[in-house]
# Entry
Amino acid sequence: MAQAMLGTMKVHKLASSVFIGATGILSKGDFKSLDGTDLANTALEYAAGEPNNANNAEDCLAMNEVGALEDVSCSRLLPYFCRKESTKKCRVTHVKSLCKNHGYQWESHTGSCYKFHGAAKTWRLALATCHSEGGHLAIINNEIESKLLKKIYKEHVENIDGAKESRHALIGFRRWDDGEWATIHGESLVNAGFSQWSPSEPNNSGGEKCGSIHDNGLLNDAPCDEPFAFICEISP
Ligand code: MAN
Ligand code: CA
# Structure
């Protein structure tokens, strides 16, 4: 995988490093791949002097032109590679086992599984938590999924702990620096398939750039730095 990435970097003359799928957001300096594998257990090596956690602000990992790793700020704009499992059947099998291992519930109506996290976190930590389980903050792609998440919400609302308020839970969209609301996969809400805001939202109450689902199944803009419950999804 690393060799293939280096070849592609040269052909496309990308920047001198690219993000890889590992972060230390959950536990500083303890870099883990997105499915929770400890990087200490892989063959990857750091560049000389790395990780150096410059300015105490480097919680993401990038790979340089010779295949060595460095810790970088998560806010940097760097190219990145994506990888998808090759066949649908293989992905579904993989996803079902991840779901089982991490306590997610499979839903045949949407072909994804979900986990409602009642222990409240800020949006960025919620994002990292879903990633560490091999999932992502839930993305609503249609009305069926909105209704399903509303039902899951109802089933777990009593478990919410430490949230600023329990009427909404964080999910996978936000307002990015270009001012547009888009999912964590970079799609506009309309293209993702669901863009119905809860009545009188988004209201940007006190400054709200992060996405949440209201207990009525509709969208809300929420503060990024306050703790709320959140919903993760693993999809094939
Ligand atoms: C209330 C409303 C929402 C807002 C949240 C923040 O529910 O004002 O618009 O996003 O508070 O917790
Ligand atoms: Ca709001």
The first strand starts at residue 17 and ends at 23.
